[in-house]
Amino acid sequence: MARVVVDVVLKPEILDPQGQAIVGALGRLGVHGVSDVRQGKHFELEVGDEVDDEALARIADTLLANPVIENFTIRR
Amino acid sequence: MARVVVDVVLKPEILDPQGQAIVGALGRLGVHGVSDVRQGKHFELEVGDEVDDEALARIADTLLANPVIENFTIRR
Amino acid sequence: MALDTVELAANTADQPQPYAELGLAEGEYRRIREILGRRPTSAELAIYSVMWSEHCSYKSSRVHLRQFAEKKPPEAADKPVLLVGMGENAGVVDIGDGWAVTFKIESHNHPSYVEPYQGAATGVGGIVRDILTMGARPIAVLDSLRFGRLDAPDTHRVLPGVVAGVGGYGNCLGLPNIGGEVYFDASYAGNPLVNALCVGAMRADGIKLAKADGPGNKVVLFGARTGGDGIGGASVLASATFDDAKPSKRPSVQVGDPFAEKVLIECCLEIFAADLVVGIQDLGAAGLSCATTELAAAGTGGMDVDLDLAPLRDPTLGPEEILMSESQERMMAVVTPQRLDAFLAVCAKWEVLATVIGTVTEVSAEEAARGGRLRMRWHGETIVDLPPRTAAHEGPQYNRPIERPLDQEAINAHDGHNLPRPRSAAQLRATVLRLAASPNLADKSWITDQYDRFVMGNTVLAQPEDAGMIRVDEVSGRGVAVSTDGNGRYTRLDPYAGAQLALAEAYRNVATTGARPLAVTNCLNFGSPEDPAVMWQFTEAVRGLADGCRVLGTPVTGGNVSFYNQTGNTAILPTPVIGVLGVIDDVARRTPQAFRSDGALIYLLGR
Amino acid sequence: MPVRVGVVSFPGSLDDRDAARAVRIAGAESVSLWHADPSLHDVDAVILPGGFSYGDYLRCGAIARFSPVMQTVVAAARDGLPVLGICNGFQVLCESHLLPGALIRNDHRKFVCKEQPLRIENVSTPWTSSYRMRQDIVVPLKNGEGGYIADERTLAELEANGRVVARYLGGNPNGSYHDIAGICNERGNVVGLMPHPEHAVEALTGPGTDGLGFFLGVAGVQEAA
Ligand SMILES: Nc1ncnc2c1ncn2[C@@H]1O[C@H](COP(=O)(O)OP(=O)(O)O)[C@@H](O)[C@H]1O
């Protein structure tokens, strides 16, 4: 059993309204110094030892991320 | 300028319908060995050097996470 | 901690118990000991504490709510309108042609303050399950909202969250939102009101009731797993102010899963259509405690439950926590052994988890006289052995002190005639503009644009109409119209007349669509019942509503009381929210608000 | 024999009954298809209705894509079966790669429900053949994740080949690139549409009957064939 983390972020060229809204809110709150925010998804998976790197990549690529608009990283 | 990552996850005792849906989908996809999934949010911030740890924690606590139901971690 | 079994409880009479922390008064605790003839086990204490909370037992309001039955308008004996009256999960009204509708309004005020999105979402989820439980397909929702001043900072946290939550849950269930209200007043800062109404439709012979009949029948828990949500919430979240919430009683937020509920709805409707249940109950406030005691109390009175069998989301939960958990999207059904396989097959089709956790039992005459016998086991030991009627039906009832507020005279002494009037055209213009821009009168589409009003394809009237209208029968065009109204400021000035004004407004709103008003539901939002002035407002409002309903000929079919809406000693404006439901033979004959032809004459009716 | 149009129900589908009603009003026969049943039961066309399939918690349509019925729908669509995906159905079609691009959260980050003017820009698909070219219609729009996006190359290709089937008029309601409300595949048999024509088939319950054309189209085309 191990915990694996998969982070999914929008590709840089895709607009991220949520991130933009946070930048705007920070400004209104008087917090300065944050020039950009991108929002993505964070998954924590409990996986058995039989799940190898290849299987994980497939899970991330087919289900957790949509490769048309998103990139992902896997941390074991 | 530095990139800071904030991961926000639901507190362990809070129901995570998203994660549950993914576990269910994996089962239907014939992927075995993933016993649990929790879905959270992943933020990537571009911050200036003047933004210290305390300021970051405040941003995470007030804007990025909902402390009633979520915990967060900050990685610089 | 060692397991607190019935056997242990019988031998350790003097062990101190945290009844006060669980919200029970000393006298209430003593009565529990009398009923049981021993001290309660901790699991039994959990059950009584939630069942006897203000929220579940209506202990301060019940003596007054009786008026709704006592003053019920007479009905034609051959054509009763009310198929199911007050006391069930929701009342059921005959609308003709073999159709029946059920509707009810309920509050989720405190949870929506703590976590606006989830509080509002689970409020919608709860009332929808109440309607489903009656055997009906939910067909529409309405929401009645009150917030602090629009420019108050906290309103900017609460309002968007509540609206997104009502929409997020209702939209995802595929229920059109056909109306509601929103008002702003400083008194609701810190105590927003989130009242949700749901309407359901069914064939009149398809009504389902919450009772566990037939010894040997199986008790099935189905839907979501039980987690640690809202433990203690029933008595604490809904019935006490936050100010005195001890850390141990801190609310734990419930998170809604609308997808699970949508699937549960379709699953239940398929189960109803195949006639697979004897009785059914949703799990709302007080969760398993409520479902088991209420089902048993309304049936034979006997039930055996094996709590170990309840599917858990959090395996560390103890039996008391399982009994008090308010996890959403759960139902409990009573099923005959012959139909069990068919029942489980429908659940499997919808991928709904279903588990037999108990059996309906026979009770002896002696046990019946005590209020039945509900037993629960945990790890092979008996941890609950109580008469369920004492928990579900025989809770404490209080006749709380009532006193007209000292300032009632003074606030009524204000005379509007002395206020300055706009005199010039410019002043008049300024007044009109101010009124049009005031949050209480301004356009509400920021809210209603977030609600799906088209889904199901039967919405005939929705925003901005005075009442929503839904087609029930696509062939005949038979339908229903519903409106909710309430005015806290009027009610503060005169609670008796204020409740009647709200009733009259909802009644008119329904009538102007062309529908015939038939029945009333209500959500009574007030401050602390322990404050005699609040209690005066409450009793006057109830009396006004009951009298008004008698005059208009529309019975009260159900509703909900929400007390303790106050910050410190300051209560919200007394806010009875009234829902009126009417029937229309053919929705094609509805009358919308807007003028429909040039040259039409305009009449002013009334005095 | 009336044309048989299958309407798929996923767990969490909401507008399946509405789509079936629209099919019937258009004079075709509606056949309900279940997500777990791979058979299409000999239907002449398929509608993937609106809703929140499997809760849509991950990404809209992401999980529905893997259902048994979708395996068959994808294959049949590649062979030319007319398929219309409405709202969530559009999302499922994109996730299934039957249509290019993706649908993301509305730019204003709220759910939006309104009566939406559209312009029909392609009348050669089986679903739009009963409309006039550049006909303006009004149908309900209701979504939280209706922003259509695609890379520049895809957008250019869609525009160049007339594959934008419908475009928003009078303001962009969700941030869709090029105001795109609906697109089709290269062959034209697969159409994805964010607004809801099935909610505009009866004057009594919708903004009008402008949406009926989508269903008349498929009923008529098949009859002629
Ligand atoms: N204001 C009210 N007017 C009429 N009936 C009420 C009112 N408040 C509660 N009731 C009735 O009391 C009964 C118990 O309340 P209920 O809301 O059903 O509790 P729960 O659903 O949490 O078990 C219901 O039948 C309800 O209709």
From TrEMBL, chains A, B:
Pathway: Purine metabolism; IMP biosynthesis via de novo pathway; 5-amino-1-(5-phospho-D-ribosyl)imidazole from N(2)-formyl-N(1)-(5-phospho-D-ribosyl)glycinamide: step 1/2. It is an enzyme of class 6 (ligase). It catalyses: N(2)-formyl-N(1)-(5-phospho-beta-D-ribosyl)glycinamide + L-glutamine + ATP + H2O = 2-formamido-N(1)-(5-O-phospho-beta-D-ribosyl)acetamidine + L-glutamate + ADP + phosphate + H(+). GO terms for molecular function: phosphoribosylformylglycinamidine synthase activity. InterPro entries: PurS, PurS-like_sf. Belongs to the PurS family. Part of the phosphoribosylformylglycinamidine synthase complex involved in the purines biosynthetic pathway. Catalyzes the ATP-dependent conversion of formylglycinamide ribonucleotide (FGAR) and glutamine to yield formylglycinamidine ribonucleotide (FGAM) and glutamate. The FGAM synthase complex is composed of three subunits. PurQ produces an ammonia molecule by converting glutamine to glutamate. PurL transfers the ammonia molecule to FGAR to form FGAM in an ATP-dependent manner. Part of the FGAM synthase complex composed of 1 PurL, 1 PurQ and 2 PurS subunits. This is Phosphoribosylformylglycinamidine synthase subunit PurS. It comes from Jatrophihabitans cynanchi. The gene is purS.
UniProtKB/TrEMBL annotation, chain D:
InterPro entries: Class_I_gatase-like, PRibForGlyAmidine_synth_PurQ. SUPFAM superfamilies: Class I glutamine amidotransferase-like. CDD domains: GATase1_FGAR_AT. PROSITE patterns: GATASE_TYPE_1 (PS51273). The keyword Repeat does not apply. It is found in: Cytoplasm. Gene3D superfamilies: 3.40.50.880. Pathway: Purine metabolism; IMP biosynthesis via de novo pathway; 5-amino-1-(5-phospho-D-ribosyl)imidazole from N(2)-formyl-N(1)-(5-phospho-D-ribosyl)glycinamide: step 1/2. It catalyses: N(2)-formyl-N(1)-(5-phospho-beta-D-ribosyl)glycinamide + L-glutamine + ATP + H2O = 2-formamido-N(1)-(5-O-phospho-beta-D-ribosyl)acetamidine + L-glutamate + ADP + phosphate + H(+); L-glutamine + H2O = L-glutamate + NH4(+). The active site is at residues 87, 196, 198. It holds the Pfam family GATase_5. Its EC number is 6.3.5.3, 3.5.1.2. Keywords: ATP-binding, Cytoplasm, Glutamine amidotransferase, Hydrolase, Ligase, Nucleotide-binding, Purine biosynthesis. Its main location: cytoplasm. It comes from the Bacteria. Part of the phosphoribosylformylglycinamidine synthase complex involved in the purines biosynthetic pathway. Catalyzes the ATP-dependent conversion of formylglycinamide ribonucleotide (FGAR) and glutamine to yield formylglycinamidine ribonucleotide (FGAM) and glutamate. The FGAM synthase complex is composed of three subunits. PurQ produces an ammonia molecule by converting glutamine to glutamate. PurL transfers the ammonia molecule to FGAR to form FGAM in an ATP-dependent manner. Part of the FGAM synthase complex composed of 1 PurL, 1 PurQ and 2 PurS subunits. PANTHER family: PHOSPHORIBOSYLFORMYLGLYCINAMIDINE SYNTHASE SUBUNIT PURQ. This is Phosphoribosylformylglycinamidine synthase subunit PurQ.
